[in-house]
Amino acid sequence: MTVAAGAGAERLTISAGALRLAGAVADVPIPQNRVSFSVFVPIGANSEGRLLRDNVKAGEIIRVPEGMYHVVSTYGESNAIMRSDLKVDAGRVTDATLNHRAATMTLKLVATAGGESFAGTAFSVLTPGGDVIRELIGAFPSITLAEGEYVVIARQGQQVYTREFRVESGFDRDVEVLAVSK
Fold it and tell me: Structure pTM?
């Protein structure tokens, strides 16, 4: 293309489109500040070959070349993660909602069921196999977890208490650990 003085117009065709992402649990949208996305360009058999964009917010429009993309959606800050492969067509916005199977649990160390929560409690949330998912401190910290079985360990002073619990998708609730010596 040669640029010369005077009026002129040239039309260029770009094979590009866009992605607009959202997250949901049981058809209920996840608030924008609770979900983030990472967009990858697959390379060969590796779906997460090259990171294109990280920390993408729900509803944000990402302009990308036409092609296939791998999207990782993270709900909360723990293990509630969903993945999807998406195709972007030229000249179109591809809207995608990734459906999570997760819930938010509020952890409490209490003397009696339904009682007041102890301040300054250190909590560890583990898989049944003992892998640490997250550690939190407070009277009633919250954690978003993928559906499944878990163990919570609560430490108050020199005392340690445990409880097993189950997370059911879309069912946010309190998980009370009773401060009872065994």
Answer: 0.84
